[in-house]
Amino acid sequence: MKIAVDAMGGDYAPEEVVIGAINAVKEYKLDVVLVGDETKIRKVLQDQHVKESERLSIAHASEVIEMGEHPAQAIRKKKDASIVVATRLARDGKCDAVVAPGSTGAAVAAALLGLGRIKGIERPCIATPIPSKRGITVLLDSGANSNSKPKHMVEAAIMGSHYAKYILGIEKPQIGLLNIGEEATKGNELCQQTYPLLEKLKTISFYGNVEGRDIPNGTVDVVVCDGFVGNVILKFGEGLGMFIYQLVRDAIKRSGFIAKLGAMAIYPALKSLKKQLDFTEYGGAPLLGVNGSFIICHGSSKAKAIKNAIRVAGELVEQDVTGHIRTSIEEEEVEQYDSES
Amino acid sequence: MKIAVDAMGGDYAPEEVVIGAINAVKEYKLDVVLVGDETKIRKVLQDQHVKESERLSIAHASEVIEMGEHPAQAIRKKKDASIVVATRLARDGKCDAVVAPGSTGAAVAAALLGLGRIKGIERPCIATPIPSKRGITVLLDSGANSNSKPKHMVEAAIMGSHYAKYILGIEKPQIGLLNIGEEATKGNELCQQTYPLLEKLKTISFYGNVEGRDIPNGTVDVVVCDGFVGNVILKFGEGLGMFIYQLVRDAIKRSGFIAKLGAMAIYPALKSLKKQLDFTEYGGAPLLGVNGSFIICHGSSKAKAIKNAIRVAGELVEQDVTGHIRTSIEEEEVEQYDSES
Fold it and tell me: Up-side HSE of residue A132: CA atoms within 13 Å toward CB?
């Protein structure tokens, strides 16, 4: 098993990406190809006293997609960009999966162009694991498509179900449709049209509508929504968590000596909480629906997040999630759905 | 100034609603008419040792809209429902504003049917004040319309600006369009079409696109979005706040004696934080765009929330927010916008 990692992606590239890869190779039964500027990557390896090897090699790529660039245009223009080269390694069978930290737009464009879509899937989407009372609740699409049609919601439901089953190990994942009320007739046109389609599916277990609060409450295993909504929710959640954290800190700062001592005493408890809320523990967000295993990591990913993403990339391959999605999409005859309605 | 309050609305009616009204009359220069089952309302007044008076009177209504009922149908059928009677008092000029705890759907239906819309406004919307680093950020629409067109987003931007100016006291409110990226061309069709329209407006200060994290970060004073998105975000935020609170509590419970002592020491700090995060401090969410002042309160509103909502209802009237909206809508010639595009 060999994972191609875009070593130039994200805010802490290449240092943190390379360190994450070093640790992944140590801990898991898989090899990593670090893709990017070989001088820079080699420098980090040397600093870490690690030698290139069969298990941890470098594939040189001379270009990098910058955060400000138009994703699809940049991918087309920069044929030697690290993310493009990494994806090509997977396409050509030289690697089994790709891990891409950094710009979501560039990663999605590289995967769509480089790997193509599973037959019958019109819109691959991003599945993000979110901490919840259930442990993890998967939100998808969390940002690949911002004008979803009912057909795309059906695709997302099927893909999310397989991800939850084979990666999270949930025997019969419950799938909810994100809406503003429980009744089948509630919500916007997209939801009203999607609901009866999800009810008809044979290969997933459709729970019905869920509301915003059901995501942290963990009412279901998988929450399906349009990528615009999913992206806004994810970023809102990140911001709100940070805001609450700062409020707690400021409130303690404003308090007296005793409160500061108290804060020190509960610090271990808060630290375990922080770990529980830390999205990076879960190892990136797979782009489901492309012909291959492809994990997108947050731009702020550090070594631990990269290591976990590499592990999940390996699991996607091992469990053949792409294969299971392919079979389900055929069985449900998703191609028949009108993507314009 | 006289405010009609639906005393039968919400999870804690009539007790908490009546107590909220009693306190409002004590604290503010306004009168309240409690609308609902007069026997039940009188009972609460007696329990509180408060007499009916010119300033705190009862208007009997024999029916109540239950949570399970279809809002618009129920409003049409139950002509003597408390929310319908309260709205009628405002329409007939016997009261200056309405405060409606409980079902949002029923409140919106009662207001639309009873008060009608401001000329030029096609979709009244709900403006919800959210705690943020800026103090308060207003999110609208937070649930009245779930299939917004660009015209409705323009209406929301204008209405939100006046609410922020006259109720929150912000001289030149910054208005942001909720999107998934900063660039003008980002996002779904609704956002792409809305952006240039907001840029053209003369009576508001358009900041540009904002993302989910900008809501808690308080990047702008007013965030404009479709009601489906707004509703999902609000409920997600409520659920996430509760989830984090429980995680903290559980983490402390699992810790030893010292941590429990520590938790006691920081309790005052956490309590002030809870107050800061408490939506009810801000006094309900106005339904803007109807011909009158109309405040919707959360179904779980207790006396303090009701009292604050009555205060804000008074401010809406005093500041003539409806009048300012009417003037702006005319000046911007919003009626010319195609609501189908």
Answer: 23
Tokens of A51: 């030698």
Percentage of residues in chain A with pLDDT exceeding 70? Answer: 95
Whether the per-residue pLDDT at B277 is higher than 70: the answer is no
B1-121+289-319 under CATH 3.40.30.10, yes or no: no
Q: What is the C-alpha separation between B321 and B97, in angstroms, rounded?
A: 12
Q: Label residues A163-201 b or e (16+ Cβ within 10 Å = b).
A: bbbbbbebeebbbbbbbbbeeeebbbebbbebbebbeeb
Eight-state DSSP code of residue B63? B
Which candidate, A141, A78, A142, places its Cα nearest to that of A110? A78
* Phi, psi at A234, each rounded to 5°: -60, -50
Nearest residue to A286 via CA among A330, A322, A318: A322
Contacts of A300 in chain B (CB under 8 A): none
Asked if A232 lies within 8 A of B180 by C-beta distance, the reply is: yes
Please list the residue range(s) of chain B that carry CATH number 3.40.718.10. Answer: 1-121+289-319
Is residue B154 within 8 Å of residue B201, measured between CB atoms?
yes
* Choice between B25 and B300, residue whose per-residue pLDDT is larger: B25
CB contact under 8 A, A254 and B269: yes
Locate B126 and state its tokens.
């709900």
Q: Note which residues in 189-248 of chain A have CB less than 8 A from chain B.
A: 189, 191, 211-217, 225-229, 231-244, 246-248
Residue of A331, A321, A247, A303 whose CA lies nearest to A23: A303
Return the pLDDT at B340.
Answer: 62
- Looking at the predicted structure, is the pLDDT value of residue B338 above 90? no
For the CA atoms of chain B, what is the radius of gyration? Answer: 21
How distant, in Å, are the alpha carbons of A214, A220, B230, B251 from that of A275?
A: 21, 22, 29, 11
In a mutagenesis test of the B interface, which of A142, A232, A238 is the best target, namely the one with the most B β-carbons within 10 Å?
A232
- Separation in Å, CA B109 to CA A16, A25, A138, A236: 55, 61, 35, 29
B212: closest CA of chain A, how far (Å): 4
pLDDT in tens, B69-122: 888 999 999 999 999 999 999 999 999 999 999 888 999 999 999 999 999 999
- Identify whether the C-beta of residue A209 lies closer than 8 Å to the C-beta of residue A215: no
Q: Do B231 and A237 touch (CB under 8 A)?
A: no
Tell whether B133 is within 8 A of chain A (Cβ). yes
Per CATH, which fold does A1-121+289-322 belong to? Isopropylmalate Dehydrogenase (3.40.718)
DSSP 8-state assignment for residue B279 = G
DSSP A328: H
Rounded distance between C-alpha atoms, residue B263 and residue A253, angstroms: 15
User: Per the CB < 8 Å rule, is A265 touching B264?
Assistant: no
Question: Which residue in chain A is spatially nearest to B231 when comparing CA positions?
Answer: A180
Chain centroid to CA A182: how far? 27
Please report the pLDDT score of residue B341 as a whole number: 53
* % of chain A beyond a pLDDT of 90: 77
Residue that is written with structure tokens 């046109």 in the block: A189
A148 alpha carbon, distance to own chain's centre: 18
Question: What tokens does A162 get?
Answer: 């397989």
Give the pLDDT band (50/70/90) at residue B246. confident
Report pLDDT for B273.
67
